[in-house]
Amino acid sequence: MTIETTTFDAAKHLGDPEAQAIFLRDALETGDTGYIAHALGVIVRAKGMTQIARDAGLSREALYKALSPTGNPTLSTLIGVTKALNIRLEASAISVK
């Protein structure tokens, strides 16, 4: 018996703003820039790449490049994208023991 598999696309399961925020929060907590860019890319795809790029003041191609696995989004891109996504970045102190 052959098992059929399909490619999992997280963007199809992130329609809820709270789920998007949880996903991005998890990525930010790791401090892994590649994971953060990936998470933002998935959320942007869930919301619509073209519209988010437009709202962030970027071309669609520039947004794809910035959020690609080898991308390195600038601070202005990060702020523009999170604003377009209606996501607020917050800071909190880290407990040092």
From TrEMBL:
<dbReference type="GO" id="GO:0003677">
    <property type="term" value="F:DNA binding"/>
</dbReference>
<dbReference type="InterPro" id="IPR010982">
    <property type="entry name" value="Lambda_DNA-bd_dom_sf"/>
</dbReference>
<dbReference type="InterPro" id="IPR014057">
    <property type="entry name" value="HI1420"/>
</dbReference>
<protein>
    <submittedName>
        <fullName>Probable addiction module antidote protein</fullName>
    </submittedName>
</protein>
<dbReference type="Pfam" id="PF21716">
    <property type="entry name" value="dnstrm_HI1420"/>
</dbReference>
